[in-house]
Amino acid sequence: MIKRIFPLFFVLAACGSGEKTPFCQCMKAGDELNAYSATILEKDEITKEEESKMNELKAKADKLCKDYETMSGEKMLQLREDCTEMNAKDEALHIVED
Q: Is the C-alpha dihedral spanning 4, 42, 52, 31 positive or negative?
């Protein structure tokens, strides 16, 4: 199981947070989970509220990413690039609109 999860978290951590596709939504959820995990891992104690939020974020990421758990690393990298490109285009549009 760890062999399947490691590539997924690698891709999630390495990509932007676009929401154009289900895969991009999965990555955004993974990014949120990773960021929150990093903040509470620095603490000596974790409160019940923090633990609850962590469980909610994990459940959200699990739900959004369930279709990608067994996907090849090559395919994940392609989807990651697609999300990155969509994010770049969205950011460019926001700059032009402002």
A: negative
Cα dist. 34→4, 31, 73, 93, 94 in Å? 17, 5, 19, 28, 26
Which residue in the block uniquely carries the two structure tokens 């090849």? 72
Q: How far apart are the C-alpha atoms of 38 and 7, rounded to whole Å?
A: 18
DSSP 77: H
Biggest CA-to-CA distance, the chain: 46
54-95 per-position pLDDT tens digit: 999 999 999 999 999 899 999 989 998 888 888 777 776 666
Instruction: Enumerate the domain spans of the chain.
Output: 2-97
Query: How many angstroms separate the CA atoms of 43 and 20, rounded?
Result: 34
pLDDT tens track for 15-37: 444 456 899 999 899 999 999 99
Rg (CA), the chain: 15
